[in-house]
Write a structure and sequence with these properties.
Helix content is 85%, strand content 0%. By secondary structure, it is mainly α. The protein is built from three helices and no strands. The longest helix has 43 residues, at 38-80.
Amino acid sequence: MPEHHATEIVTFIAVCIFNEDFIPVLEMLTLMGTKDGPEAHAFAVKCDNIWIERSEIRASDASKEARTARLKERTSKKAFF
């Protein structure tokens, strides 16, 4: 396989993992002729669930930080006047 084809495949896999989840990667492997069993699917689901939980925690932390920053800004403006 030429190097540029391998690079393209790796790029597509990375984009799938970043934008979606691991399930499309399993679908690509199936299209390539590999056999994936229930353990591979369970791993993909587990990784996806972990990714979702982390994203929710980050979003929650970011919103808390934003609220705290706005509150500090308002209180500092009130104290200034």
